[in-house]
Amino acid sequence: MILSSTNTKTTKIISIFLSFVFLYCYCCYAKDSIIGGEFLNDDGSSCLESENKIFQMGFFSPKETTEVPRYLGVWFTMDPKTVIWVANRDVPLLDHSGFLTLSKEDGNAKVLNKSQSVHFTTSIATGNMCSIAST
């Protein structure tokens, strides 16, 4: 009887532990790309991570806080305090409503706020960028 009670407690502890491990892995999952129409939200846990896990891209605040202003940047995974590129350096977000998206139409990346105001955009030319002249 004591053995059965111990096994039940052990099973419960293991199942709770595995649930926490799964939840942690799920919450900390980082994708390595997004496609047109997808979003990267400023939710405090979402980021893009390079395939080799050296770089991450996401939203951050310049001080050791989660408060505003908010920026989209790239940093070293092993040293998140070393930000190496900032998208919206001149136009920070004033709250956590920001998101990064890729346009389905032209492939440009955009950092927008909840009102769809543009805080940063790339300028990728559409059409054939490499044309071959025939004579």
UniProtKB/TrEMBL annotation:
Name of this chain's protein: Bulb-type lectin domain-containing protein
Lineage: Eukaryota, Viridiplantae, Streptophyta, Embryophyta, Tracheophyta
The UniProt record lists the keyword Hydrolase: no
InterPro entries in UniProt: Bulb-type_lectin_dom (IPR001480), Bulb-type_lectin_dom_sf (IPR036426)
Keyword terms of this UniProt record: Glycoprotein, Signal
UniProt KW Glycoprotein keyword: yes
Pfam families given in the database record: B_lectin
Domain Bulb-type lectin, chain residue ranges per copy: 31-135
